[in-house]
Amino acid sequence: MSVPIDTDRLDLLRIEVPSWAYGNSGTRFRVFGTPGTPGDAFEKVSDAAQVHRHTGIAPTVALHIPWDRVDDFGALRAHAESEGVALGTVNSNTFQEEDYKFGSLCHPDARVRAKAVAHHAECIDIMRETGSRDLKVWLADGTNYPGQDSIRERQQRLADSLAEIYAMLDDDQRLVLEYKFFEPAFYHTDVPDWGTSYVHCVELGPKAKVVLDTGHHAPGTNIEFIVAQLLRLGRLGAFDFNSRFYADDDLIVGAADPFQLFRILVELVDGGGYGDPDVQLVLDQCHNVEAKIPGQIRSVLNVQEAVAKVLALDVDALAAARRDCDVLLANEILMDAFHTDVRGTLAEHRAARGLPEDPMRAFLASGYLERIAADRAGRAQAGWGA
Ligand code: PSV
Ligand code: MN
After folding, report:
1. What's the pLDDT at 385?
2. Does ligand 1 come within 6 angstroms of the Cβ of 284?
3. 380 within a domain of the structure (yes/no)
4. Which of 35, 160, 194, 386 could crosslink 382 through cysteines, CB 3.0-4.6 Å?
């Protein structure tokens, strides 16, 4: 059954996929391989392009440096274009070298801080070649024990390091700063919450925005509140979608708590963040045991389904119920939207746009997985650190 949804608004959905989702990942216990895992950034981009080809709403691929370092980023950009996608956000990585054992931009040693700043300069150069707008900074910086280092001094070092990086950005580039409340540091993290990220962004200037990642909050945190607040302040730069049961699990979007995904998207739409290119929606996921490309397709479709439910929300009736302070009716209207079965509407919507009604089945039937498993057999597989 079709439900009335503004399909023009549905068409505004764009989701960036992460290059690292196509490489092998795992836990500290084991990283399992998958047949056909890409060997390099070119193959990761080819795999990512399959997601866009079948869903039509995942046109860009985020890179991670150094994992995706190639000799010629112009060639990688051309390769992406030939596959029908573009290169997106460039993620820096200051958490996998010996020098970064005690931090990077906040490290007590000025030499290490300078090294971390220089890494970001390299990322900005790469962005010029790839045509990327956003430099995404997520730091593993923090301490494990009270007294290990000065929290206050680390904040100042962070502000100083970020200011150096910000000064290197071109006018059309942005720095987006992600927060995470713990891990790998367990006592304190230098950018633990949206408030800390926001404070640094405001200090830096208008080209600095906050990144919210679903898995980076304490259990029970009202994430939709943070979305509403950051949109209100004009500082929500990007949203990393994934889902979690316990910590930063990076599981399929909507797998753990589809209602939370819906509530977040309600605020995104209501706050004007949906369809706004300045609010970059990204998947940030790792597929440890499931097939990677289908995993990405499932996540993209779950976001699309949740967006369609939000677009089915009767906003006028909701506004009236709120005006009347009719608590139960307002809640009922919201829940009606959440319980709306939009799957038939979405299938029709895709068919009308020349896309497969069921992107997952269409991809599985395409033979691509069998082809890459054969073509890439016996070759080194990309993964963390690759
Ligand atoms: C590390 O926790 C992380 O998952 C962050 O969320 C980043 O966005 C991502 O890795 C890429 O560095
Ligand atoms: Mn993230």
Report:
1. 54
2. yes
3. no
4. 386
- Rounded distance from Cα 347 to ligand 2 centre (Å): 30
In this structure, what CATH number is given to the domain that contains residue 33? 3.20.20.150
Residues 141-158: pLDDT tens digits? Answer: 999 999 999 999 999 999
Task: Give the residue, by CA position, lying nearest to ligand 1 atom 3.
Answer: 138
Among candidates 219, 227, 237, 239, which has minimal Cα distance to 174?
237
Tell me, yes or no, if the pTM score tops 0.85. yes
Q: Helix axis angle, 258-270 relative to 223-233, nearest 10°?
A: 20
Amino acid making up residue 313: L
pLDDT tens per residue, range 212-246: 999 999 999 999 999 999 999 999 999 999 999 99
In 236-384, alpha helices (H):
258-270, 292-311, 315-323, 327-339, 343-352, 359-365, 368-375
**Residue span of the structural domain in which 90 resides:** 13-312+358-375
Could you identify the atom of ligand 1 that is nearest to the CA of residue 282?
Answer: 8
Mean pLDDT along residues 43-57: 98
Strands (E), the chain: 16-18, 60-64, 86-91, 134-137, 142-143, 174-178, 188-189, 208-213, 236-241, 280-283
Which residues on adjacent β-strands are paired with residue 178? 211
